[in-house]
Amino acid sequence: MRIDPATLSSFIMVGTAFAGAFVAALWLSLIFWTYRDIKSRTKDPLLRILATLITLVFFLPGIIVYLILRPRRTIEDEYQRTLEDETLLQTIEDRAVCPGCSRQIDEDWSICPSCHTLLKTHCQTCNRLLELVWDVCPYCETPAPILNFVEKAEEESPENI
Predict the structure, then answer these.
(1) Contact indicator for 81, 64 with CB cutoff of 8 Å
(2) Which value, to the nearest 10 degrees, does the dihedral of the CA atoms of residues 149, 152, 153, 156 take?
């Protein structure tokens, strides 16, 4: 079985054409991918152009250089991280809220000015503010008075007047 050199030459030519078309398609798709990727990572037009040009001029070595130098996070990732940081800062800096009306209160208030909910009591000995759940004053070690809220509410209700 003999292969005609003209036929072999035409097969090689067709194979080379397909390989060239594949390389050209790969090259163009890498340029397009680089542009879209850098567009999602930065708003700087100069960086977008430079990244695309590196891939355009240097092809595979250019894409490797781009992958090494590109920003790690996308713009969306940076935005989400900023939101998380702001939320964390707000929770750290948030002021206390009233358990009755959920309005912001100061730490040194003993009663809510909006709904009149009792927030803290005064120590009978040193007159410092005590949390309602404390059973002893942490400043002077005096046992805190046990508040009987039912009796107090009955005393203040308008029906008893």
Answers:
(1) no
(2) -160
